[in-house]
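Appendix B. Raw example, untouched.
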Amino acid sequence: MRIRLISSLHVIAFVLSVAAERRRSTGKVVPDEYDERTYCRYDSDVSTVYGLSAFAALLASQAVVNFFTKCLCFGRGLSHGAGGSRACAVSSFALSW
């Protein structure tokens, strides 16, 4: 059950990230109506929403893993030993992102 939930979140994040890549925003150079300058006008950016949703799915997956392993903030999983184990787990967690 747990592995299915985590795998499903990873598959959802992958699909959303592929969708974000395929829906990149495009821009056009438009002349300014008040002077002789030009600027870029971009269409609506759905890819940002897809990317943020993929990030949220991966973050939820990490939270599920930490909850079930009682690691970091969801229990006393690393508090039995020395502080080095906890520091190693926190730094590994930060570097994985």
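End of appendix B.
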